[in-house]
Amino acid sequence: MIININIGLLGHVDSGKTTLARALSTIASTAAFDKNPQSQERGITLDLGFSAVVVEAPARWKSVSPDVDKVQFTFVDCPGHASLIRTIIGGAQIIDLMLLVIDAQKGIQTQTAECIVIGELLQRKLIMVVNKIDLLEETTRVAQLQKLNTKLRKTLEHTTFDPESSIFNVSAVQKINIESLLEGILSQIEYPNRNIDTPLVMYTDHCFSIKGQGTICTGTIVQGSIAVNDLVEIPVIKEQRKVKSIQMFHRPVQSAAMGDRVGICVPQFNAKMLERGILTRPGYLHNIYAACIRVHRIRFYKFAIRSKSKLHITIGHGTVMANITLFRSVIDTTNGNFDINNEYEFVEELEAATSAQTEDLIFALLEFQTPILADTNATLIAAKLDLDAQSNCCRLAFWGRMQWYTHANNYSLDVLPKFKVFKHKLKQGFIQRLINENEAIVENLFSKQGNREIYLGKKVELSTGEIGVIESTFGQKSKVKVHFINGLKTDTLDELKGGRLSSVKVMLKYKKYIFNKQLSLVQ
């Protein structure tokens, strides 16, 4: 029995990831080693590449599963170019372990740091691979590598990764220490926990038609299992197909499960419609138009995050634009989960992250410009991908797991009014004249065009502490009459009678619910 482990090769462009994948592998897929003509022309990886090697399973696995005698490492070669970050994120979500590939001459670069962040938030195990050591001067190579390895460990001290994570110094071109790297991977990889009892979800990354056979969809099963003759759904075209055959790296199989890299053949459909997407059990996933997540800031993102702005949201292999609304919890909650029945305060802006910043309980409502397909606990990653790809800055802003979502297309009318997200509002005016000890005329509290009627009966507070109620409108413009049930204090009366009317401020405080017109004015 063979168990498949997916290992991602991530790092900055031109760090030698594809050459390393070739050195580690003995089996190549149709999408391995930059076979794409554009990749060959430009000399860089443009899409995910897949290759594999089969080795003896670790003896320690026998106690978990005695039937397992082989382990197949499927290497996911991710692009390194900054402009392909969404492909990198998609590739990282299907892996069990991350090989962070670093150029021995250049050390950590911008996309190296972004890959560390992606590995952190997806909680992947990390092995660092310093490549191209053959390009270092032989006389100073040992000293240079020792210095670089020390620097890499210090970098990890500021992450969730163990600073003592393994580092392998290799040359993929000359195959120096490649066997040691394979042995290191084998010694550290744990027996995978595969969830095969849940409905099928398969991330497809390549799709093509073969005349006379059907359409081939290649991808990774991220949950559940699949077998020949199963019915699968292609949600993007809302059609179902029966699985005619399944292959794993050119080897025919009757079934496959979570973690396996497979190619499945189904009856013909337009392959261009599913170049990158999802296959599922029929009826399992439906379009999600909006979702709510708890915001986990990415500390390297040095820009403010603003409500009503737009960010790129990556879910699995897909990336869409979304409008962002931020809000914070106003009650203590032990589990940190969003509850539509609780009240939340609108947040205009989160300032740029700092290392000393405390983690507030902030949530984000994401309104997708294009509906997404995602499992209910999917990880969503927000990024500003329209930043200059050549700039030396992290574009990943925050991430979170989906805690609320809606399938309703008209959610803004039917669902959002249930959200109790409010803004604190303050209107200020002053007493224009005193009627008696209990009544006064207030002006400048409202604009001349404002609707004063909706504020009748609302409480106001003077800067001197007295509480009053707006009793009626006064005149044709912006004035109102305020009644003070307990009367005005002697000092306040003296101030007003002395002609210093504007020195006593009248304040109207209330909460305005941003999604519900009926609850737009609450004290």
Task: Explain what you see.
- By secondary structure, the protein is mainly beta.
- It has four domains: 2-188, Rossmann fold; 201-280, Elongation Factor Tu (Ef-tu), domain 3 (Beta Barrel); 288-418, Translation factors (Elongation Factor Tu (Ef-tu), domain 3), CATH 2.40.30.10; 423-513, Thrombin, subunit H (Beta Barrel), CATH 2.40.10.190.
- 14% of the residues lie in helices and 40% in strands.
- Strands 18, 19, 21, 22, 23, 25, 26, 27, 28, 29, 30, 31, 32 and 33 form a 14-stranded mixed sheet that branches.
- Strand 13 and strand 14 form a beta hairpin.
- The longest helix is centred in the first third of the chain and has 16 residues, at 141-156.
- It is elongated, with a radius of gyration of 30 Å.
- Mean pLDDT is 88; it is low at 33-46.
User: Which architecture of the largest domain per CATH?
Assistant: 3-Layer(aba) Sandwich
Mean pLDDT: 88
Residue runs with pLDDT of under 50 for 5 or more positions: 33-46
For the terminal residues, how far apart are their CA atoms?
66 Å
Q: Give the overall form.
A: elongated
What's the Cα radius of gyration? 30 Å
